[in-house]
Every structure is written in C-alpha cells, then in structure tokens.
Amino acid sequence: MDKLDTFKKIGKLEKLIHEPSRLAILTALMGCQQADFQFLLNLVGMTKGNLSSHLSKLESGGLIVVEKTYLGKRPITYLSLTEHGRKSVSKHWQILDDLRKSI
User: What is the pTM (predicted TM-score) of this model?
Assistant: First the structure.
C-alpha cells in the first residue's frame, strides 16, 4: 500500500466512532449483547454526564439502542449495538488494522 492509499483509508474513518470515548464505548459493546449503564460507566471511567452525552450522540447516529426499564422497582438502562452499529465498528477497526499493517 502506498502513502496515498494510506491517507485515503484515514479519510474513511467515521468521526462519530473514532472519538476516543465513543470508540471505547462501542468496543465494549462489541463484546456483549447488551450492557447496563452502570457497568459501562465503571468500565470506561467517565462521569455519568459525559457518558450520557456520548450515548445520546451514538443513539442519534443509529449505532446503539438505549432501553430504559425497571429491575424490580429500580430503574435500569440497557445499551446495545444496532446491526448497523456492529457492522460500522467492525469496519472501523478493520481500517485501523489495515493502517497499522501498512506502516
């Protein structure tokens, strides 16, 4: 792969996914069917407000589904990747891997 091809691949990275906090969230969700908000909060080490903000952007972009429900009387929020989200994250990691290999 020549340098021009490398730069073309960089241009294919999706900005919504590539932001480090969102990439961490999405990568965590790739490893499971769904995760609850508290688990994800502990895993990625963000504040509640920061995590909520990123989740809203990912939900608006069609990458995740946010489901609010109750466990007994306790409210709980579940997060999962959409099919589009799963494919997009896989493609994103493939581009990054191709770039790494081309160096």
Answer: 0.89
Range of the domain at 93: 3-102
Per the structure, the count of domains in the chain is 1
Per-residue pLDDT reduced to its tens digit, 57-88: 999 999 999 999 999 999 999 999 999 999 99
Mean pLDDT of the chain: 92
Can you give the CATH number for the domain in which 56 is found? 1.10.10.10
Query: Measured in Å, how far apart are the chain's first and last C-alpha atoms?
Result: 9
Distance between CA atoms of residues 97 and 93, nearest Å: 6
| CA–CA gap between residue 92 and residue 72 (Å, rounded) | 38
- Residues 6 or more apart whose CB falls under 8 angstroms from that of 53 comprise none
Alpha-carbon span 29 to 78, nearest angstrom: 11
Instruction: Write the burial class of residue 18 (CB in 10 Å: 0-12 exposed, 13-18 middle, 19+ buried).
Output: middle
β-pair partners for 65 = 80
**CA–CA separation, 22 and 38 (whole Å):** 16
